[in-house]
Structures are given as structure tokens and as C-alpha cells.
Design a protein that fits this description.
Blueprint: H1 2-37, H2 41-57, H3 61-77, H4 81-102, H5 107-123, H6 127-140, H7 147-163, H8 167-183, H9 187-204, H10 207-267, H11 272-322, H12 329-349, E1 358-361, H13 362-371, E2 382-386, E3 391-394, H14 396-413, E4 419-428, E5 431-438, H15 468-478, E6 481-485, E7 493-500
Parallel strand pairs: 2-4
Antiparallel strand pairs: 1-3, 4-5, 5-7, 6-7
Helix pairs in contact: 1-2, 2-3, 3-4, 3-5, 4-5, 5-6, 6-7, 7-8, 7-9, 8-9, 9-10, 10-11, 11-12, 12-15, 14-15
């Protein structure tokens, strides 16, 4: 009985120690990740090593491999290759022992260890050793059905070939990788592959490869646009066919109703005239309603397509703009115009999503907003804030954006010796206003109805794209409010932002 109790106690101690080691390892991994995010590399490396040891104690090999790979990356980041290789070797020995004891192979963990060694040999420009690790990685995946690791291997193979001048083999590997992504319709990943290839060529100083890779990237960009357009066309065709079927069904229903009406007219000859008149009105109403519904559906679809089309054009401009001289005013203006278009499209597509509210002191908030334009005003301009010292809930980020835009415009157009004011007024239990007033030149009456409409005029983009106020107006709508110009104010410009909680 005593021997049995001793055995139970020993097993409990061992099991409890393993559980404790696992808990400590998890905590150290969390702390190490936080240190890494804070760029505290030495502390992060130390904690990854400690976590690795704790995982090994608890026989958690996936955790040990992950911690070892992270620590190794931080070792050879500072050229401590010896320490990195030793750590990976120690973990691999434990991994081999555990596989022998359990009789169960762990190829994914071997793959991660070999991949980390491959990265170090690539960094050391050791082609033979890097090739050796690459072959091991390929061997690890034999018989293993893991699409993610297979795709990763193909990417590393392409990088190896290009780095060591085997461009033809690199092209072949890239084609296989791109074909894989294309089969999955993951076009963003294909673009990322081309960008990584251009980065590899730049690092190796291979100007010919840079030029060829960039040309291939441009060709792919054109082809993927065609593919996406065809897919969108097919989707629209399907919607159109569905709409036709729905119209046919409704027309069949209308024909049935007509037959009923005619039968009633024959059966009730005395009321024939009244029934005919009523039938005509009903048919006109049905036809008009159907037309209106169809028009609304088509208009909504066109509006969505327009928004998506404009957003796509803006996104496609960015890679080309990045190749131009960023110091040129025109290039800078195009960048800003592209960003504004994407922001406008994003707001239009997310108007139904509410902003997160925060509780702030309104006087302090208004003072901070006004202080932000002091370095932009002309000499002698007076700034004033009129707001109570009270707390309200607001959508802080979009409200700050709108008020900053209005006050920056006021600072731009208010002459020397002028006045700019920011007021807060509570108009009810759930309604309040922010009012921005200046005594500048004001807004001409002929364009007042257009200032909140995007693309209402053709502009020189270096002098502003005119999308600032439309963006602010959409933000106001999304905050459950409205941004308007006070037409009754004739001594400058006065904007009123009314919000409802």
C-alpha cells in the first residue's frame, strides 16, 4: 500500500511539474512577443530561449520549435550565427528523441527548423548549405498534405534561385507559384510575389532582373484587371438573367390577374365600364411600380459599380505614382487625390456602420482643436472658443477630422486682423451643434449648392481636389448628423455640424 501511494505521489509530482512548465512557457512567449513588438530585441530573445526550455520540459515540441525559431531569428539578426545554430540543433535532437519515443513523425516542426537554417545560409550567401536545407525542407513535405507549407516552399525556392543567379529556374518556380495562387483566385498573393521578387532583385543588385520583374509585374497587373473585369461582368450577367426571370414571373402573374379581371367584367356586365377603368389604372400602377423598382435596382447597382470602379482606379494608380518623383507638386497632388478617393469610397460603402463613441470634456476638446491651427493663421487673427465645461459622448476621430478641416480652411481664407471662432451649443437632450465661423471672403453664392458634392467641377489638383468637404459631409452622416453652410451669414463663412445622439 505504501509503495502504491509513493508511485501515485511521484506521478502527480511529474505531471504537476509538466503542467507548470507549460503554463510558464506560455507566459514567457506572451512576454517575449510584447518585447519584440516594443523592439526590445535582447529581452525578447532571452525570453524566447526560456520559453523554448520550458516547452521542452513539458514535451510541447510545436511550442519549443516556434520559440527556438523566434530566438534564432533574433540571434542572427545581430550576426550571432553560432548561438542560433546551436539552439536549433538542441531542439532538433529533442524532436528526434520524442519522435522515436512516440513513433509519430512531426514533419512540420522539422520544416520550420530547416527553414530557419536556410534563412541563415541565405544571409551568409552560402549557396551549397542553403541548397542542402532547401532539399531537406522539400523532403519534410513529402507525403504531407499541407497547401500552406507547400506554397511557402515554392516561394523560398524561387528566392534561392534568383539570389544565386539561376534566373531561369527562378522563373520556373515563380510560374508554378503564381499558377497555384491563380488556381485559388488569390490575386493579391500573386502581386505580393512579384513585389517580393523585385525586392530580391534590388537587394542582389541585379538591374536586369529588376527590369524584367517589373515588366512581368505590369503585365500581370493588366491581365488580372481583365480577369477581374470578366468575373464582374459574369456576376452582372447572372444578376441580369435573374432580374429577367423575376420580370417574367411578375409578367405571368400580371397576365393571370388580367384574366381574372376580364372574367369578372364578363360576369358583371353592369359594372363593366367601372371595372375596365379600374383595370387600366391598376395596370398602369403595376407597370409604373415595376419600372420604378427596376430603375432603383439598376441605379443602386450602377452606384455600387461606380464606387468600386473609382476605388479600383485609385488603388491601381498607387504603384505607378510610387515610381515617380515624390517631390513634384503634381505627383504629391495625385497621391492626395488618390487617398481622398479611397477614403470617399470607403465612407460611401460603410455609412451604415456606427463610429465608436468616447466620453470627453467638450471645453478641453475644443481648446485642443483650436490650438492646432495657431501656427497657420495670419498675423492679428483672433481665435475664440465658446463651449461649456461638460462631458458628452462623441466619435472622437471623425469629429476631430471634420473640425480640423473646417478650421484649417478658415485659417487659410481669414485675412490679417480677422476672427475665427468655434462654438458648441446644446439644442436639446439628444442634439448638439459645433459651429465654425470666420470673417473671410466667404463662399460665392453660385457654388454654395455644390461644395458638399464630390467631382462637381474640373479642378487643378495642385490647388486642391475639392473632396475635403464631401468627405466631412459623409463623416457627419455616419455620426448621425449633418454638415451644412449657414446661408444667412453674410460676413464670411459659417459651417454648422449638427449631431444627434
Amino acid at each position: 500500500m505504501k509503495i502504491y501511494s509513493a508511485i501515485v505521489l511521484a506521478v502527480g509530482i511529474v505531471f504537476g511539474g509538466a503542467v507548470n512548465a507549460q503554463t510558464n512557457a506560455n507566459k514567457m512567449m506572451i512576454d517575449a512577443n510584447k518585447n519584440l513588438d516594443a523592439k526590445e530585441y535582447v529581452t525578447a530573445r532571452y525570453r524566447y530561449v526560456q520559453a523554448c526550455n520550458a516547452y521542452l520540459t513539458s514535451n510541447n515540441m510545436p511550442g519549443a520549435v516556434k520559440a527556438a525559431v523566434n530566438a534564432s531569428a533574433l540571434y542572427h539578426r545581430e550576426n550571432y550565427y553560432k548561438e542560433a545554430f546551436e539552439l536549433l540543433g538542441r531542439v532538433e535532437m529533442s524532436l528526434n528523441k520524442l519522435e522515436q519515443d512516440n513513433g509519430r513523425p512531426m514533419p512540420a516542426e522539422h520544416y520550420d527548423l530547416n527553414k530557419e537554417r536556410f534563412k541563415m545560409y541565405m544571409k551568409l550567401k552560402n549557396s551549397a548549405r542553403a541548397r542542402e536545407q532547401l532539399d531537406k525542407m522539400e523532403g519534410n513535405l513529402k507525403g504531407l498534405s499541407n497547401d500552406s507549407l507547400m506554397t511557402d516552399l515554392m516561394s523560398e525556392q524561387a528566392g534561392y534561385y534568383y539570389t544565386f543567379g539561376q534566373n531561369d529556374r527562378g522563373d520556373a518556380a515563380m510560374k508554378k507559384l503564381i499558377a497555384r495562387y491563380q488556381g485559388q483566385k488569390d490575386y493579391d498573393k500573386i502581386a505580393e510575389c512579384y513585389r517580393n521578387l523585385i525586392g530580391t532583385a534590388l537587394k542582389s543588385g541585379n538591374s536586369r532582373l529588376v527590369a524584367r520583374s517589373y515588366d512581368n509585374y505590369m503585365l500581370w497587373t493588366d491581365s488580372v484587371n481583365k480577369i477581374k473585369s470578366n468575373e464582374e461582368l459574369a456576376e452582372l450577367q447572372a444578376k441580369y438573367n435573374s432580374a429577367l426571370e423575376e420580370i417574367d414571373e411578375k409578367e405571368s402573374a400580371i397576365i393571370s390577374r388580367k384574366a381574372v379581371i376580364v372574367t369578372l367584367c364578363i360576369a358583371l356586365a353592369i359594372l363593366a365600364a367601372a371595372l375596365v377603368f379600374g383595370a387600366i389604372i391598376l395596370l398602369r400602377y403595376i407597370a409604373l411600380t415595376r419600372k420604378q423598382k427596376k430603375a432603383i435596382i439598376v441605379a443602386n447597382e450602377h452606384n455600387e459599380l461606380k464606387t468600386r470602379f473609382i476605388s479600383n482606379i485609385s488603388a491601381q494608380m498607387e504603384p505607378t505614382l510610387d515610381t515617380l518623383d515624390q517631390k513634384q507638386p503634381g505627383v504629391k497632388a495625385l497621391h492626395e487625390f488618390s487617398e481622398h478617393i479611397q477614403e470617399l469610397s470607403s465612407l460611401e460603402s460603410s455609412l451604415g456602420e456606427a463610429y465608436e463613441l468616447q466620453d470627453v470634456n467638450i471645453l478641453n476638446f475644443c481648446d485642443e482643436i483650436m490650438d492646432g491651427i495657431r501656427d497657420r493663421i495670419k498675423p492679428g487673427v483672433t481665435l475664440s472658443v465658446n463651449a461649456p465645461k461638460m462631458n458628452i459622448k462623441i466619435a472622437l476621430e471623425p469629429l476631430t477630422h471634420v473640425l480640423n478641416h473646417l478650421l484649417n480652411n478658415a485659417a487659410l481664407y481669414t485675412p490679417e486682423g480677422g476672427k475665427i471662432s468655434l462654438e458648441f451649443k446644446k439644442r436639446g437632450a439628444h442634439t448638439h451643434q459645433f459651429i465654425v465661423t470666420d470673417n473671410g471672403a466667404g463662399i460665392p453664392e453660385e457654388i454654395r449648392q455644390q461644395i458638399f458634392r464630390p467631382f462637381s467641377e474640373v479642378r487643378n489638383l495642385t490647388e486642391g481636389d475639392g473632396l475635403g468637404l464631401p468627405i466631412c459631409s459623409l463623416m457627419a452622416i455616419k455620426m448621425n448628423g449633418k454638415l451644412s453652410l449657414d446661408d444667412s451669414f453674410n460676413h464670411g463663412a459659417r459651417f454648422v455640424l449638427e449631431l444627434h445622439s
